[in-house]
Amino acid sequence: MPALAATADSGPPQSHWLTAPDDPGLRLHLAARGDSAERPPVLFVHGATFSGRMFDIDAGGVSWLRAVAAAGFAAYALDLRGYGRSGDADWRARAFADGAGPACTGPEAIADIGAAMDFITCRHRRPAALVGWSWGSTTCARYAAGAGRDMVGALALYAPIFAERNEAWLAELADPEMPGQCRPLGAYRRISAEDMRRRWDTQLPPGADDWREETVLQELARVSLLDDPTARTVTPSAFCVPNGTLIDLWECFSGRPIYNPGRIDCPVLLIRGTQDPTSTRSDMLALFDRLGTAEKQYLEIGNGTHFINAERRAPALFSAVHAFLHRHARAAKSTGEP
After folding, report:
1. Measured between alpha carbons, how far apart are the two ends of the chain, in Å?
2. How many Å separate Cα 231 from the centre of its chain?
3. What is the DSSP letter of 40?
4. 3-state class (DSSP) for residue 242
5. Are the C-beta atoms of 166 and 238 separated by less than 8 Å?
6. Rounded to whole angstroms, how far apart are CA atoms 284 and 281?
7. Contact call for residues 117 and 128 (beta carbons, < 8 A)
8. Domain residues of the chain, as ranges?
9. What CATH number is given for 14-189+243-334 in this structure?
10. Per the count of CB atoms within 10 A, which of 53, 123, 161, 193 is most buried?
11. How many CB atoms lie within 10 A of CB 267?
């Protein structure tokens, strides 16, 4: 894979710490690259398993934050509560306690996105673009359709999930004792490096081992384990992942919409890899047809899975999203928006 263009922002990302609006004891982590106030801002929101680290993997030339900063944007990646570096040991002990309900539900994630967008739009004095991946496509879409309608300048939903029955995922999430219902959920689950490899490998067709660099998988596992101080208290080492997302995914994969796309009126790009079994073509097109905005487009990229942003085809994904963001950042500036 060709290396991304070098930038002055080639060291570690800057960290911003925000207070969650509904929990003064919770600090949210926001990573940033190229975040000069005069640049148009873009916020990346992760999915159900990995934190914002997914957008800044320091291997294989697949750091999306570096790429989008090199393209002229102020790049931010949020860790939702309980993911990555958001939530200290005391907060996690409470949120992940035995008997606690699923942590980081959809409404809580949307509140975290709102806190990050408030910070970013105040800092840059203009609406921000949002890029939501996988489950993050649902939380970003709900924010853009609701409280954030005036804050979002453009919305890119990568590997979007909407409302199509997905039998493989339903089998994974179903209660074996009560078919048709989601299994009982604790506050969190644990993910090991082998779990990561197994899920990713099942999406690679025969002969596609070269779609992903081994160093990328290893680095993503390393930083994910590093961020959780309890990861090495179990064997094999495994990091905690909040289970609130599974409530939303059960509904989506049961074919039940959890938001109204018709309320989204900003420009929207839908984009997926062709080998993605989680974000399907038919589901993406159903979402496309129901979007309220006339400024919408969809795109598929060949030879890529649900994790295409961390694969060898990542540059094609980055280029397509950056072109969309540039076009609408220019449009926002031309209309005199702050």
Report:
1. 38
2. 22
3. P
4. strand
5. no
6. 5
7. yes
8. 14-189+243-334
9. 3.40.50.1820
10. 161
11. 23
Q: How many residues does the chain have?
A: 338
Q: Tell me the torsion sign for CA atoms 115, 117, 120, 122.
A: negative
User: Under a CB-based contact definition with an 8 Å cutoff, are residues 104 and 81 in contact?
Assistant: yes
Q: Which amino acid is it at 329?
A: A
Q: Which amino acid, 286?
A: A
- Extract the tokens encoding 47: 């999915």
Q: Which residue has the tokens 């999406």?
A: 203
Six-digit token string for 170: 């339903």
Instruction: Yes or no: say if 188 and 82 are a contact pair by the CB < 8 Å rule.
Output: yes
